[in-house]
Amino acid sequence: MTEEALARAREAFEIEAREVRRAGEVMDMEAFSRAVDALKKAPRIGASGCGHSGIACRHFAHLMCCIERPARFISPAEAVHGATGFLQAGDAMVLVSRGGKTAELLPIARISREKGATVIALTENLASPLAQMADIVLPMKVERETDRYNSQGTSSFTATNVIFDALQAALIEETGFKNEQFAVIHPGGAVGERLNGGKS
């Protein structure tokens, strides 16, 4: 590895740490609280995004399932071909778009609103079409990705996941979710072995 590549790799750790701190600093905690309340009350939770945002949404759906909040990732492509039938009145739909203009997500927001689901948007652009259509907007702000061109979805992906992790942490407290419940649904692997006293 060249010295330049090594320096770039070391810088990546610093950049991501800085952007994670920024995620907490810019968060609107009143909106965050409303999002937690909506997710707590929702019988079902959907999540959708494109590219890295979509991958983060898959992570979020899994996080919700891990604390027994029924959730699924809804593909933006399939959402407008019937997949939004998953949503019912009172549900929550989480949509992620850093710029808030991802064309594939706007119909999902409209459908969700029409069906009576709460739309939670995670975006940097608070004046964007997505933010305007949302019931709750969780702000994010990323100033630097880790690559030299500042174009790859790296720090922004990490910041999105940290916000999702924070939502799960809050929901565990709000719902009274117990580790014993997790032991039932996670008997596999090293975690399952630890939770179940070596009886996985």
What does the model show?
With 200 residues, the protein is of the alpha/beta class. The protein has one domain: Rossmann fold (3-Layer(aba) Sandwich). Helices cover 53% and strands 12% of the residues. It has 9 helices and 5 strands, in the order ααβαβαβαβαβααα. It has helices spanning 3-26, 29-41, 52-66, 76-79, 106-115, 129-133, 155-175, 179-185, 189-195, and strands spanning 45-49, 71-73, 92-96, 118-123, 136-139. A 5-stranded parallel β-sheet has the order 2-1-3-4-5. Helix 2 (29-41) packs across helix 7 (155-175) and helix 3 (52-66) packs parallel to helix 7 (155-175). It is globular. The model has no long low-confidence stretch (mean pLDDT 95).
Write the layout of secondary structure elements.
Blueprint: H1 3-26, H2 29-41, E1 45-49, H3 52-66, E2 71-73, H4 76-79, E3 92-96, H5 106-115, E4 118-123, H6 129-133, E5 136-139, H7 155-175, H8 179-185, H9 189-195
Helix pairs in contact: 1-7, 2-7, 3-7
Question: What tags apply to this protein structure?
Answer:
alpha/beta, 5 strands, globular, 12% strand, five-stranded parallel β-sheet, 200 residues
